[in-house]
Amino acid sequence: MMTDRPQEPLSAYEKAAQETDLDPRCIPQTLEGPPPVGEEIPYPEYPEEDHETWRTLFERQMDLLPGRAGEAYLEGIKILGLNAERIPALSELSKRLEETTGWRVARIPGLLHEKDFFGLLAQRIFPSTDYIRGKHEIDYTPAPDMFHDIFGHMPMLTQPEFADFYHLFGQAALKGQGTTRIEMERLHWFTVEFGLIKQADGIRIFGAGILSSKNEVQHALSDAVTKIPFSPERVAQQDYVVYKLQDTLFVLDSFDQLVNEFTRWAKEKKLLA
């Protein structure tokens, strides 16, 4: 007698794909070979319209960040030399990250399959696109673009403890299967993308998904959001919906806590030695 095998649990992105008409750009791609890294990445000939889009997005977000963004993130903006004048070169950003925390940048074609994505993180390589959204998507794009990758993610990779955490995360995520795979996705979502941290002057934002979004950055610290002290066990149980403003977020005491607590959790799950 044959019995049905239990289905693998679905991630939040997989659930979203079942419930909506999925934009083709949101379908993960598999790398066909090693992507260009660091100085191997050519600088595209961007039309002036793309530089204008970068300028609009950069200036708008920077106006919103005082009193909202964390100290480490704002310092990372300075370290990377990000400004509104022109789209930065991935090769130059890679050089500055390597000098600061030993990370490098790879140029990728779009949203990556998780194994390719985690495989790069495990090598201390951050995968980034090099194209920017069109003006019709200036307020929101469901697909990854360079503004999210560069402005949202890269400044935090200049912060030593966070940079170490993300390296460990990539190594651990390569071993995640079944329920653990879903738990890893939630940990990524509520730290790397939508993380908050306590500072002397109050709770501040460090997650890329918030910092690169006009609506999320105004929403995240409001009373409309339930803020819960961070623990990997609690975060791993928190489901979420991808394409909506987040109503529950988690707050770190420090980036040391993030490294230490994640390392403990991952070792207990046999994801790290």
Characterize the structure shown:
A hairpin with a 2-residue loop joins strand 3 (196-199) and strand 4. Helix 5 packs across helix 7 (160-173) and helix 7 runs parallel beside helix 12 (255-268). The chain is built from twelve helices and six strands. The radius of gyration is 18 Å and the shape is globular. It has helices spanning 12-19, 48-64, 71-80, 90-101, 114-121, 146-153, 160-173, 178-193, 208-211, 214-219, 232-236, 255-268, and strands at 104-107, 125-128, 196-199, 202-205, 226-229, 248-252. By secondary structure, it is an alpha/beta fold. The model is unreliable at 1-6 (pLDDT under 50). It has a four-stranded mixed β-sheet with strand order 4-3-6-5. The chain has a two-stranded parallel ribbon with strand order 1-2. It has a single domain, classed as Aromatic amino acid hydroxylase (Phenylalanine Hydroxylase, Orthogonal Bundle).
Strand order of the largest sheet: 4-3-6-5
CATH superfamily membership: Aromatic amino acid hydroxylase
Q: Which CATH class is shown?
A: Mainly Alpha
Which regions have little confidence, pLDDT < 50, spanning 5+ residues?
1-6
Structure class: alpha/beta
The helicity comes to: 40-55%
Number of helices: 12
Apparent shape: globular
CATH architecture: Orthogonal Bundle
What is the ordering of alpha helices and beta strands?
HHHHEHEHHHEEHHEHEH
Number of strands: 6
- Calculate Rg over CA atoms: 18 Å
CATH topology: Phenylalanine Hydroxylase
